[in-house]
Amino acid sequence: MPKIYRGIKESNGMPAIGSTGTSLGIRFPDPEHPEARFDIVPDSSGMVHPNSGGMSVSPSIASLPVHAIPRRLKSHYREARGSDTIRIWRIGDGPFADGLVSERLTHRVDPDNAKHGFVEPAILMQAADFVAAIHATREMWTDAEDELS
């Protein structure tokens, strides 16, 4: 499984589940807020497709967006400007390359940015099943800030 990182709020010692950019989950388009960011667009029947986007991840802590690195880590990452409610989490131990994350999820390196990737559907599935598959990885994530000691 590829080694991937994400800045996620903590809940009971694990990544927080949700539908924000700082949670373990997926953001879908919101017709009431068309300007809001989203991760993937379901088709007209509510299905999500492989190779169409998903939850953003990075190959290292240093390659995370500066807003996803908590300010408390400025001693390690000078540009860090994220909320201190965020922790850095990691899953996997292989190279940052395309590959399975779980039976229903895959990691795909962003073709436009080698320091960004997507955890996306490995197969055609209902949007709700995709969210459930992302949530099912919760116990697989480890606190990557321990690597900084």
Mean pLDDT: 96
User: What value does the Rg take, in angstroms?
Assistant: 15 Å
How many alpha or pi helices? 1
Number of strands: 10
Q: For the terminal residues, how far apart are their CA atoms?
A: 24 Å
Topology pattern, helix = H, strand = E: EEEEEEEEEHE
Beta content comes to: 15-25%
* Low confidence ranges: none
Q: How is the main sheet built?
A: 4 strands, antiparallel
Basic shape: globular
Percent of residues in helical segments?
A: under 10%
Structural class: mainly beta
Give the strand order of the largest sheet, numbering strands 1, 2, ... along the chain.
Answer: 2-1-5-10
Number of domains: 1
How are the elements arranged and paired?
Blueprint: E1 4-11, E2 14-15, E3 47-48, E4 55-57, E5 86-91, E6 99-100, E7 105-109, E8 117-121, E9 125-126, H1 127-135, E10 142-143
Antiparallel strand pairs: 1-2, 1-5, 3-9, 4-8, 5-10, 6-7, 7-8
What does this structure look like?
There is one protein chain. The protein has 149 residues and is mainly beta. It has one domain (4-148). It has one helix at residues 127-135, and strands at residues 4-11, 14-15, 47-48, 55-57, 86-91, 99-100, 105-109, 117-121, 125-126, 142-143. It has a 4-stranded antiparallel beta sheet, with no helix packed on it. Strands 4-8-7-6 form a 4-stranded antiparallel beta sheet. It has a two-stranded antiparallel sheet with strand order 3-9. Strand 1 (4-11) and strand 2 form a beta hairpin.
